[in-house]
Design goal:
With about 200 residues, the chain is of the alpha+beta class. It is built from five helices and seven strands; from the N terminus they run H-H-H-E-E-E-E-H-E-E-H-E.
Length: about 200
Amino acid sequence: MTLPPPPFGSAGERQLQQHFGTADRADRFYDRQVRSHLTPEMREFIGRQTMVFLASADSRGECDASLRAGPPGFVHVIDARTLAYPEFGGNGVMASAGNMIENPHLGMLFVDFTHHHVGLHVNGVAHLYHDADLRGIHPGLPTGVAPGRGPEMWVHLTVEEAYIHCSKHIPHLEPAPRPAGRDANRPRDADYFTEGNRLR
């Protein structure tokens, strides 16, 4: 008889756990910390966060990491298994959203660097919606997330797993006010890594 696959952890994870003798420890982690939904504490934590790191890949497995930021609550928790966040116009490349069209699996990492020093991983399946279409399904979506700008689309995530990231090595950062104007000596973003401005 073939046993069903375990609810959490990839085949690669399981292979390395066997190789390094960590399977029992990993099983305790999966059992105690990994959930197939957002707990009330996780939902409250997401509602306080002002940024999230995204991990996506296209159909060939080519990966991309990105950052999204906004006021607290810009990532909107719809319910224990669903969240959504707005996509605004940027450089026009749409790398993350483009990956989601080819491969809807999305990883999100929320990190609190200033108070509780914990992170929250949320992994699931993403779908893209026009603003009006998603509001027709979920009318409670926030408005005015970016004053003067409307979202080009929304990313709607069906949660498959969520777990807390160990706080042991999360650095403490002190929030600082954003500079009022662009420094005249600071290169434009597009020129930051060009010859003459390259980090050394």
